[in-house]
Write a structure and sequence with these properties.
This is Endonuclease. InterPro entries: Endo/exonu/phosph_ase_sf, Endo/exonuclease/phosphatase. This protein has a single domain, classed as Deoxyribonuclease I, Chain A, CATH 3.60.10.10. It has five helices and twelve strands.
Length: about 230
């Protein structure tokens, strides 16, 4: 069984600042995931320097970041996204970058493991862009996946009845409201789980530090591989 998680870090600024990545790392440590997809891990402008310091990750959480090539040396992720995982999983992991269409620059990251492919995503702000982006991801997942796929991240979609039609072959799970963190009302963060994977449990991690560390609460899901 694996614990998967997704967390929009909001550049480690909490709701209004200051920049304090130790808070986010403490939340990840308490959540204890095997694999976690992160969004907004880099600052947005210039060389996009890392907002989540690479040097602190393994020491504070026991996890390691995916090896993302082709980005700035000062950046941790690609389009602000990365995936952290247990070191033993990293030894057999292969990561691919997936460019996405839309009005603003977006991309997803796909982590392929021997029995599972995890796709971290942060979709656009307009529903038309989100639909096009999900269509691209679903098409790519069928080519690079190895039978079992989990998409997870900030879908930026608050409705359950529209915008996710392309994922009809997946089990879409919004564990609960995750935004805004102090008083969550919107289910922006989700999982999309392919058939054959057993969802054992899922939830929103709402510890006191999580409400202060970002504008999103992290979500988690325990899945069992067949």
């Amino acid at each position: 069984m694996l614990r998967l998680a997704s967390y929009n870090l909001h550049k480690c600024r909490g709701l209004t600042g200051p920049h304090a990545p130790e808070r986010n790392l403490a939340v990840i440590r308490d959540l204890a995931p095997d694999i976690i997809a992160l969004q907004e891990v880099d600052f947005r402008f210039g060389a996009r320097p890392e907002a989540l310091p690479r040097a602190l990750i393994e020491r504070e959480t026991g996890l390691v970041p995916a090896d993302i090539t082709g980005t700035s040396e000062s950046s941790l992720g690609w389009h602000g996204q990365t995936i952290l995982m247990r070191p033993d999983l990293a030894r057999s992991a292969v990561l691919r970058r997936l460019p996405l269409p839309g009005l603003e620059p977006r991309g997803a990251v796909a982590l392929r493991l021997p029995r599972l492919t995890v796709i971290g995503l942060h979709l656009g702000l307009t529903r038309s862009s989100r639909r096009a982006q999900l269509a691209r991801i679903a098409a790519k997942a069928g080519r690079i996946g190895n039978g079992h796929v989990v998409m997870m991240g900030d879908f930026n979609e608050w409705r359950d009845d529209r915008g996710l039609e392309i994922l009809s072959d997946f089990r879409t799970v919004a564990p609960g409201p995750s935004y805004p963190a102090p008083l969550p009302r919107l289910k922006l963060d989700r999982f999309a789980i392919s058939p054959g994977l057993e969802l054992v449990a899922a939830g929103v991690f709402a510890g006191a530090r999580a409400r202060e560390a970002s504008d999103h609460l992290p979500i988690w899901a325990d899945i069992r591989l067949p």
